[in-house]
Amino acid sequence: MESIPIIYLCGPTSSGKSSLATDLAQRLGGEVVNADAFQLYRGLEVLTAAPTTDEKASVPHHLYGILGPEDTCDAMRYRGLALPVIEEIQGRGAVPIVTGGSGLYLKFLTHGPSPLPSGDPAYRETLAPLSLRELADRLQELDPLEASRTDLQNRRYLTRAIEICELSGQRCSDLRDRWASLTREVSAGLRGLFIQRERPDLHQRINQRTERMLDQGAIDEVCRLASASETFEKAIGFREIQDLLAGKINRSECTERIRAATRQYAKRQETWFRREQWLKPLHWPPNKEIPLDRAMELLGY
Predict the structure, then answer these.
(1) Same domain as 125, residue 169
(2) Chain-wide mean pLDDT for the chain?
(3) CA–CA dist 156, 146 (Å, integer)
(4) Which CATH number does the domain housing residue 252 bear?
(5) Which of 16, 74, 132, 186 is deepest in the core (most CB within 10 A)?
(6) Domain range for residue 146?
């Protein structure tokens, strides 16, 4: 029996992912799975623009508000939370529709963790006294191929390549090439969309969402929190509202800081998802209805 495909719906903040995901789920007999790092938490539903009550009532939604504010989370933990949920949905004969804007979380879910070792600050300290020439010579000795394709004037690149060789006991070039090959193989079997909006339209939506968020309870959400994890505090708007509550900034300054931070985040998201070439771009024109039929066509339905 052919496995039920997983649909991935990505895009920058404020692009309309939640509404499109809900409509896709209704059309396909699917269930929505959260892939937004901050919508995993309860207590910031307004601040993080979690799906509305109506959206949640129309189709099953999973992994929203499952962590407490004091909990920490990373991409690997998210993968462990999401995979069993996706398997359960497929087991019921439904289509999992994974939606969110946290690129690294989605990458870990679709491709798994990279085989490259994590950075080791203590080891990097041992390389700090070396000159660029000495670092380049070290890398040339450890991995001539990687040295040939590394910017030898970039200290960070040299240090990272040497670190990978030394910590893994393998050539950096071998590890990176195998990972690139596996990534291409996995990507070929994935099915997903990347919502694209025109820049002025997206910025207008961000501005409107920020105003609506502050008017509809985000300030109260932050005010009610007794404690929050380092992960939780990274939600855009959290620290800005804390400064507002502390009297360090006024409402207008708070609004503009959140808008600016959100625009910057959206730009980083767009850059990330454009690199994921397996995602098909879905253009959503300004002031137009949800492009459900076009999404279905791009997904092969």
Answers:
(1) yes
(2) 93
(3) 14
(4) 3.40.50.300
(5) 16
(6) 121-177
